[in-house]
Amino acid sequence: MATMEEIAEKAGVSQATVSRVINGYQGVSEKKKKLVMDWARKLDYQLNMTAQSLKNNKSYLIGLIISDISNPYFAEIVHAVEKEATRNGYNIIICNTESNIQREKEAINSLRSRQVEGILLVPANKNAAHLRSLQQKNLPVVVITQFSKLFTSVAVDHVKGSELIIKHLVDLGHTKIGYIGPDKYSGCKEDKFEGFKKGIKNSNLNLDSDYIIKTAGGLPELSSQDVFKKVTSFLKTSDKKIATAYFAYNDLAAFEAIKAFEDFGYEVPLDIAIAGFDNTSLSKINRPSLTTISQPIKTIGHLAFEILLEKISKSESDTESIVLSPSLIIRDSTLMYEKINK
């Protein structure tokens, strides 16, 4: 088994530096920290975590509470966080709540009993009473993918992302634009729907309720099966007007919407343009490939973990919001409509 001395020799640093990195002490540059951790992995260095935990009163465990691990977007969030944890000598415990508040409570209690040093959280309801109680505990928490008034949060501007989608569709010549998804989430305004309405208003278009296909907000209600059923039910209603373009709440909703429209004889993008949100790995391989909003998942994982480590080391309790910018990824599900209908 490799020793700290061997790691120091390979990395070209002192043994003291290796010790500081492996034991989680501050005062080592990111460059040296990465170099030491890379060589520790290459040499298969085995840290006695029990001994280190007793020595430093640290568990080297981080809790990660996710609402829906089956969604590729959240799976990619997990991957990004896990990569950061490994780079910093931590392990993560993943809890999947399916946006169920009771399961979220149980996950938090379980993580606390396992003495995690901090929690990264995608809340089922960011205003829930148990989160206000958690705020009073001496446990660092960072909320990811949503904005929170209770905890530091790292998220993407969903309103702006939705506006980008609407502007893109309007630029293609669409004047009849619909929305597929919830108008509220956990009792709060849904930012993507608010962005949709704002984009319609900024484009001097009328908001037509006939073009809106509402789904329930939150899981398990907001599942891909639910979206398919709601779009199918919408299309069965003969007096409903059909838009020429639809913005779906996320990529999974867009995929199910495409399937439902095609079941009724509509071809995407020949007859209807459809766009999603998240830019999951599936959006590239779907046919047609999906126009969508990209969220900087790696940046979310990196920043959230970095902030959590700072809170762990400094015992900070301040709240702040880091707003990341979305970007538009244009693919065939909208562009082909433009080419075909010129």
From TrEMBL:
The keyword Kinase does not apply. Residues 3-24 form the HTH cro/C1-type domain. One of its GO terms (molecular function) is DNA-binding transcription factor activity. Pfam families: LacI, Peripla_BP_3. PROSITE patterns: HTH_CROC1, HTH_LACI_1, HTH_LACI_2. Keywords: DNA-binding, Transcription, Transcription regulation. Residues 2-56 form the HTH lacI-type domain. InterPro entries: Cro/C1-type_HTH (IPR001387), HTH_LacI (IPR000843), LacI/GalR-like_sensor (IPR046335), Lambda_DNA-bd_dom_sf (IPR010982), Peripla_BP_I (IPR028082). Signal peptide: none annotated. This is Transcriptional regulator, LacI family.
